[in-house]
Amino acid sequence: MTAATPDAPLWQPGPERIAAAAVTRFQSWAASRYGAPAEGGYAALHRWSVDELDTFWQAVADWFDIRFSTPYESVLGDRTMPGATWFPGATLNYAEHALRTSEDPARADTPALLYVDETHTQVPISWSDLRRQVGALAAELRALGVTPGDRVSGYLPNIPQAVVAFLATAAVGGVWTSCAPDFGARSVLDRFQQIEPVVLFTVDGYRYGGKEHDRTETVAELRRELPTLRAVVHIPLLGTDAPEGALAWAALTSADTEPVFEQVPFDHPLWVLYSSGTTGLPKAIVQSQGGILLEHFKQLGLHCDLGPEDRFFWYTSTGWMMWNFLVSGLLTGTTVVLYDGSPGYPDVSAQWRIAEQTGATLYGTSAAYVMACRKADIHPGRDFDLSRVQCVATTGSPLPPDGFRWLHDEVADDLWIASVSGGTDVCSCFAGAVPTLPVHIGELQAPCLGTDLQSWDPAGKPLTDEVGELVVTNPLPSMPIRFWNDPDGSRYHDSYFDMYPGVWRHGDWITLTDHGSVIIHGRSDSTLNRQGVRMGSADIYEAVERLPEIRESLVIGIEEPDGGYWMPLFVHLAEGATLDDDLRAAIKATIRENLSPRHVPDEVIEVPAIPHTLTGKRIEVPVKRLLQGTELAKAVNPGSVDNLDLLHFYAELAASRRR
């Protein structure tokens, strides 16, 4: 394949790939059954999916053979946002669908899960064994008195036991929630104390970066500070015995018990996810069994094109929504690859090695990891057999153009590169992967089906080829049914519907291009607005971090009392680099040439590292607050930051500027 020009796609699916894609077959089927357009490709199907929203979601439920134990009265009982009601009257169970493949005798002994740790040893868990363990544990949860609506929590790494515990919870109608074991006690309690769990699944520790990390003291603190717990289940990842009063995992999962699936209303809570908000307690976001079931079938079965022959690997932890998304790969009969460990151990090539060893067909990672590989000058396509990898998907932040080029050049030139964007708030994507569309450098392929994604100006006018607010003008099934402990719904309303009543505003800057793709520019709540021009921080990061001397960067825009505007760029340097006049000049020249003179910062300041949320996102808004003089205790929730000490630098800088 020839290199792409600025106007030409980087990648174009061939006719055979388009014909074989599930979304192509779905469109043809929906045309004959539900009046979808037979011609016009994805763009026509997408238009129909938002214009005929009820019919589209009915078709999705039919196509994926959703088992409604009680039939629905209508598809969309109320379209009002917030508060839309989906499939009223229907009952079903998410876990029943996730384990449906285990009912097929031809598939029962094939792997449902493939577990890999830092030793890169593979442990398969068959569909039949997964079903048996879920059945045994679900029966034990019922024996412990867990009833529909009770919360069950996991302080667990990305291991098979976490998947079993989640599915058993869903099977009994419980509400799952989890945190990764690298979260400290305060961070976990900020989350779990809100939802008052009755059962806690824990490990004694975890392995990361070649080292063992004991968590017994943290677990003891969680037990003391969660008075609603009726039971604690001990998983001996490091080989220790269960502490006094805790139940042993093996004893709860050894029976040969057929699972019993509680049939719950469509809008019954499935899990609670937590926002990465950096002030106040994390938002406890509740999503429904039916809403997640339909949304993930659509996303994984149509957009990601996953099926029984695929292996689905996404680097994630249980503290990030991508873990929940990954586990839903089971819905499509796909083998789900679970990796527990550091993304870069024993070296930066680790994830590519796992993709090779597990035969991953869809490999998902972060944009930051792709750029780290590029900077480390590794060559995955040369050094590993990645012939089974059909798609590399990225999320967490926008994939810079250089990341697209690197994947194309260093993995495979016939590689489907899917940069996707969504959020914990919907546990899915607003825009991203479409197997039948071309890939343009720096762009997400298209808005997702059923998602009326638009870019709006402050007055609510739709924009094309201009930067605007990311809005969704119609409801999605996986939008939160509520926030926990938000009885009047005010916190939920204010989070998404305050700026444009009745329309979801997500808080990202986007551009919808004239050829239907999407460009993400970063968070709008940390917008740079210089000389009346709004700019996305992601664009600056992409330009600056091309320089080999820059490991990571953070740009902040400060409105000053005298009407001025101060825009510093903070840089974390690569080992051996020095921030001298030459490097400062190179940084400013790179920004000026790739963006514009307006994007050039007022100062370039070296920092020991860039602070992140616990899920790895750069912290912009709290740093802005600190630089504006807000006290550290009020600017950030300490339990939401990966390294609180890093923020003292910005607080001291603000103090020195005021002096």
TrEMBL record:
- Boundaries of each AMP-binding enzyme C-terminal domain copy? 542-617
Is Signal tagged as a keyword?
Answer: no
| Listed InterPro entries | Acac_CoA_synth, ACAS_N, AMP-bd_C, AMP-bd_C_sf, AMP-binding_CS, AMP-dep_synth/lig_dom, ANL_N_sf
Q: Where does the record place the AMP-dependent synthetase/ligase domain?
A: 108-475
Alphabetically list the UniProt keywords: ATP-binding, Ligase, Nucleotide-binding
Which Gene3D superfamilies does its entry note? 3.30.300.30, N-terminal domain of ligase-like
Q: Which residues form the Acetyl-coenzyme A synthetase N-terminal domain?
A: 42-98
Do you know which NCBIfam families this protein is assigned to? ac_ac_CoA_syn, PRK03584.1
Q: Which family does it belong to?
A: Belongs to the ATP-dependent AMP-binding enzyme family.
In Swiss-Prot or TrEMBL terms, this protein is called Acetoacetate--CoA ligase
Q: What is the lineage of its organism?
A: Bacteria, Bacillati, Actinomycetota, Actinomycetes, Kitasatosporales
